[in-house]
Amino acid sequence: MNVEELLGYAKKVGFFWPAAEIYGGASGIFDYGHLGARLKRNFEAVWLDYFVDSNDYNLIEGSTILPEKPLIASGHASRFNDILVECTKCHTYYRADVLLNDLGINVAEGANSEELGKAIRDNNVKCPKCNGQLSEPRVFNMMIAVALGPDNGEKGYLRPETAQSAYLNFFREFTLLRKKLPMGLAIIGKAYRNEISPRQGLYRMRELTQAELQIFFDPKSWNPYDEALFNRKLNVVPYMHEQQLLSPKQLMEQFSLPQFYVYHMCLIDKFYKEVLGIPAEKIRFYEKGGNDKAFYNKVHMDIEVNVESWNGFKEVGGLHYRGDYDLTSHTKGSSQDLSVDIGNGKFMPNVLELSFGVDRNIWMLIDNAYTNEEGRSVLKLQHKLAPYAVAVFPLQKDQQLIDTAKAVYESIKRKFHAFYDETASIGKRYARMDEIGTPYCITIDFDTVNKDSKDYSTVTVRDRDTREQKRVAIADLPANLLSGL
Amino acid sequence: MNVEELLGYAKKVGFFWPAAEIYGGASGIFDYGHLGARLKRNFEAVWLDYFVDSNDYNLIEGSTILPEKPLIASGHASRFNDILVECTKCHTYYRADVLLNDLGINVAEGANSEELGKAIRDNNVKCPKCNGQLSEPRVFNMMIAVALGPDNGEKGYLRPETAQSAYLNFFREFTLLRKKLPMGLAIIGKAYRNEISPRQGLYRMRELTQAELQIFFDPKSWNPYDEALFNRKLNVVPYMHEQQLLSPKQLMEQFSLPQFYVYHMCLIDKFYKEVLGIPAEKIRFYEKGGNDKAFYNKVHMDIEVNVESWNGFKEVGGLHYRGDYDLTSHTKGSSQDLSVDIGNGKFMPNVLELSFGVDRNIWMLIDNAYTNEEGRSVLKLQHKLAPYAVAVFPLQKDQQLIDTAKAVYESIKRKFHAFYDETASIGKRYARMDEIGTPYCITIDFDTVNKDSKDYSTVTVRDRDTREQKRVAIADLPANLLSGL
Asked: Which residues does residue B86 pair with via DSSP β-bridges, in sequence order?
C-alpha cells in the first residue's frame, strides 16, 4: 500500500483519520477510532512490559504544558528549530530541507539557514506551486506556545518531547526510589511540534504520542551485559558509512560505542523482532553525526524500519546518549543542584534515552502486517497487538446458536477484548476479522448445542493466518486462548 | 488530612506534586510520580472495564488540539466562560463567584456578570490582598488558544472537554459500528481550562485528565432496566430540594427523570460503592438547574463524594443528558447531516454523558483510603487500585533468602505490579507498604529455604488491612493472589 491506500484502509476499517474530519480535517492531527485506540493501547502495554516493568524501571506522568523557564534551560526555546522559506508570490511556506530533498537535492538534516539558502540559489529552486521567487530561509521555532492566567501573562509551551518531564522529576524520584542508579523513568504521552508541512499520514504530526524511557546512570560503572542478548548481529549504518551487519563486539571495538549503548541496541533489536514481529532485514540503526545529530546528543542513532508505504527505511524511534546535558542544563536553569552521590563522590548522572514515536510505530505495524492474498486482506499483527483478541459467531441466525454464542462471548469478554457478530454469512464474518487482524474466530454451530453429538459443548476456533479450524471445549477456551491454542 | 497535608503526603510517598517543581512549580498543573501514575492507570482500567467493555461500548482517542470551527459550533468559543474581577490597585485577578463564596456570600454557580457585580457592590467587597477597589466583573473565556502553521495562521484550542472528540467522530463510528444505537464512545485523555485561580490540589486544574463516555441513543426507545441495579436507594439533592434518599421509582415518578437517566445513576452509584469502595453515605447526586446547569444540558447532576480534605461534598464527575444539542450544533457548524435512520425515520440521536475527572477521583480515593491508626498510616485502597499489588521481602539480608526472594519476585512481577525490598527491618518494610497501600507483602524466611522444615517452599503473605499472615506455597502464589487469597 502507498500512503493514500494505507490512510484509506485505516479510515475504512476504523484505525485512524484526520481529527475534526467533518470540518475538513486538521493538518497533522489525527483521531484514533475504536480499532486504532486498541492497537495503540496494546502497543503501549507491550512497550511498558518489555522496556519498563521487566527492567524494574518506573512509569511516571508529566504535564504536557510546561512553563517557559525549563524550555529555555533545555535549549528548546532557542534551538528546537526548523528552517522555512516562503514563496514571495503565493506566500506558501516550505520547510527548506524537505523542499530540497523532495526535488532530489541532497542536504543534511541539520543544515543551517546559510547552507540551505546557498543550495536554493545554486539550484535555482522556485516555488513548486507558482514558480515564484523563494524568500531567504529563516529560523522557525517548532514549539507551540500557550499563554495562561487571566491576563495570559504566564507563558508556556506544549512540550516538544516527553523527556523533559523525566528530567524535571529526576531528583524527586531519585530520592523516592532510594538513591539508586541506574534509575529509569518512562513516560507515555503527547508531545507537540508545529510542523511546517505535516504529511505522510502518521509520520510528521503536530500532535503525537511518544513512549520514552530515560535511564539515569553512572557512565563509569554501568556495563549491562547479557550473553543471549549480545549473541546477535545488527543492521547498522554507522555515521559516514554504508549499511552493514555488525556484532555487538564490532560496534564496541571498531566504532567505539559504549557497552551500555550497544546493550540497548540489542534490546531494541529484540523488541522489534520478537515482540512486534518485524522481519530482521527490515530493522536497522542509522547513526547521526555532525549537524544531523540533535544538539543534546553524544551518540545518536535513529531506529529505522523499512516501511513500504514510506518507500524505504524511516525513523520510528531513537537511542540517544544525551550525556549529562539535560541535568546540567536544568541545574543551571533552576539553581537546584541535580548531581548525586552514591558512594564515590558527587557527579552528574548521564542519560540514555530510548525514544519511540507511538503513532509512527502504529503506522509501521499496519504497513508490515497488511497482506493481500488472492483478494483476501489479512492483517497479520502479533496476537498481543490485535485490536480484538477474538470474535464469537453463531453459525447461523438460529436462536439456540445465538444464545449460546452470546453466553460464550459474555464469559470471555472481560479477559480477552472480544467482538460478537451475527450478521452476514460466516465466510464474510471471517473475512472482516481477517481484515482487522483478529487472531481467532470462535463459531458456535449445531454440534455445539446438540446433546447427542460427540462435539456437544465444543466450538470451532479458526486461526487467522492458517485458516485452520480446531474444535475446543467451551470450558477450555480461556486456557487455550491464553496459550495461543 | 487537610489539603496541605494530603499534598505533603502525596509528594512524600510518590503520588503527585506541582509540575516543573524545581522551577518553583506551575500553577494548576501537576505531575504524577511512580505511585500516582500507577494509581491513575489502575483507576482508568477499572473505569474502562466497568463502563465501557462490560457494556460493549468502544474506546476511541481524539486529539487534544481542536480547530476553532467545531468549538464555535459547540458554543464553547462564546459560552465556556468564567467571570473575573481585577483589583484596580494591586492588579490581582479573582474569579468573581469563587471570591464571593469564599467570603461566605452565596451566589449561584452560573450567576452572570451583572448579578456578580451587584453582589460585590451590595456587600462592599474589596480586594482581600490590598483592600483595593475591584473592577466591574468581565467575561473571560476559559479555553487555551494555540496558533499553528508557519505564520501561526491556523487558530485552534486545547479541548475544554474530551466529549467534543466523540461528537466529531460520531458519524464515522456509527457507520463503522453497523449503525446501531445505543452506541457508546469513550475517551480517556487530557482537557485544558485556563482557570483563573487554580487550587485545592487536584480540584481546579489547568491541565486535567477526563474519562468520559458519550452514549448516543434514541430517546423514544431506550429504556435500560436491571432489577438488581434498580433495587437500591440513592442519595440525591434534587434541584431546589434538600438531600434525600430516593428509590429509582421515586426519581422517575416524583422527579420525572427518564428511565435511562436513572439507570445510569444506579450504575454510577454501584461503581463508587462496589468498585471504588466508597461508603454509601459519602456518595450523592446533586442536581443543577437554572443558571447552574451547563448550557448544553437538559438534565445535569454532579456526582459528589464527601471528601474530608475538601471539607464536604465535592464534584468528581457528572451525569449529563445533553439531548441533541451536540449533534445538532455540529450538523449546523459542519454542514454534515449527523441525523440517522435506524428503521423509524430520520432523527438526531440524543447524548447521555458520563463524565469523570480522573485527577479529582485520584485525590478523592487517597482521601478516602488514608487512615492513621495509632501512628500507623495505612492507605486502604481497593486491591485493584493499589499502585503495587504485592511486595516481596527476604526476612533478613541473608544471601539464600535474598536469592529466593528475588526468584519469587521475578516469577510474579509480570503478572502483578510488584516491589522488591531488602533494606531496613521487616517491620519498617511492612509499614512502608501499608503507607502506600500495597495489599500483600510476601516474606521469604528461613523455613522457606530449609528442606527439613514443614514450611519448606512456602512463604508468609501478610494482609495490609488485617495484618494477619498466612503461609502459602510458592507454587500457589499466583492463583492465591489472583483470588485475593
From this structure: B93
Beta pairing, strands A346-347 & A376-379? unpaired
Contacts of A442 (CB under 8 A, 6+ apart): A390, A391, A392, A393, A408, A459, A460, A461, A462, A477
Confirm or reject contact between B148 and chain A (CB < 8 A).
yes
Does residue A179 sit at the B interface (CB-CB below 8 Å)? no
User: Is it true that the peptide bond before B128 is cis, omega within 30 degrees of 0?
Assistant: no
Question: Which residues, at least 6 apart from B414, have a Cβ–Cβ distance to it below 8 Å?
Answer: A49, A53, A54
Which residues are CB-contacts of B10 (< 8 A; sequence separation ≥ 6)?
B16, B17, B36, B201, B366
Instruction: Show residues of chain A in contact with B149, CB under 8 Å.
Output: 27, 93, 194, 196
Burial level of A226, CB count in 10 A (0-12/13-18/19+)?
exposed
Q: Is some CB atom of chain A closer than 8 A to the CB atom of B67?
A: yes
Which residues of chain B make contact with A420, given a CB cutoff of 8 A? 56
Q: Give the mutation candidate from A12, A16, A34 for the B interface (greatest B CB count, under 10 A).
A: A34
Q: Do residue A19 and residue B156 have CB atoms under 8 angstroms apart?
A: no
Task: Write the Ramachandran bin of A80: left for phi over 0, alpha for psi from -120 to 50, otherwise beta.
Answer: beta
Q: What is the pLDDT of residues A406-455, one digit of tens each?
A: 999 999 998 899 999 999 999 999 999 999 999 999 999 999 999 999 99
Q: What is the DSSP letter of A233?
A: -
Rounded distance, CA A77 to CA A81, Å? 9
A333 interaction partners in chain B (CB closer than 8 Å): 23
Look at residues B303, B232, B220, B383 and name the one whose alpha carbon lies nearest to residue B51: B303
According to DSSP, the residues that pair with B158 across neighbouring strands are B65, B144
The count of C-alpha atoms lying within 13 angstroms of the C-alpha of A202, restricted to the half-sphere facing its C-beta, is: 30
pLDDT mean over B24-41? 97
- B305 in contact with A at a CB cutoff of 8 Å? no
Q: What is the 3-state secondary structure (H, E, C) of B126-137?
A: CCCCCCCCECCC
Structure confidence at residue B374 (pLDDT): 85
ipTM: 0.95
- Flag whether pLDDT at B109 surpasses 80: no
User: All 3 cell numbers of residue A160?
Assistant: 516538544
Residue B83 is predicted with a pLDDT of 92
For residue B116 the three cell numbers come to 456578580
Cis bond before residue B182 (omega within 30° of 0): yes
CB < 8 Å to B207, chain A: 63-65
Name the grid cell of A300.
Answer: 545518536
A34 CB neighbours in chain B (<8 A) are 58-60, 173, 176-177, 185
Minimal Cβ distance to A150: which of B62, B140, B148: B140
Nearest to B379 by CA among B439, B436, B440: B436
Burial code (b: 16+ CB inside 10 Å, e: under 16) for B328-342 equals ebbbebbeeebebee
Question: Nearest chain A Cα to B417, which residue?
Answer: A53
Q: Is B63 close to A30, i.e. CB distance below 8 A?
A: yes
Q: Are B71 and B91 in contact (CB under 8 A)?
A: no
* A37, closest residue in chain B (CA to CA): B60
The Cα–Cα gap between A386 and A389 comes to 6
A383 vs B: CB within 8 A: no
Instruction: Inspect the interface and report whether the beta carbons of A30 and B207 lie closer than 8 Å.
Output: no
pLDDT tens profile A117-135:
999 999 999 999 999 999 9
Inter-chain touch A196–B60, beta carbons under 8 Å:
no
Q: How many Å apart are CA A244 and CA A238, to the nearest integer?
A: 8
Q: Where would I find the H helices in B338-455?
A: 358-369, 399-412, 426-436, 446-449
- pLDDT, tens only, B130-163: 999 999 999 999 999 999 998 888 999 999 999 9
pLDDT for the residue numbered B278:
98
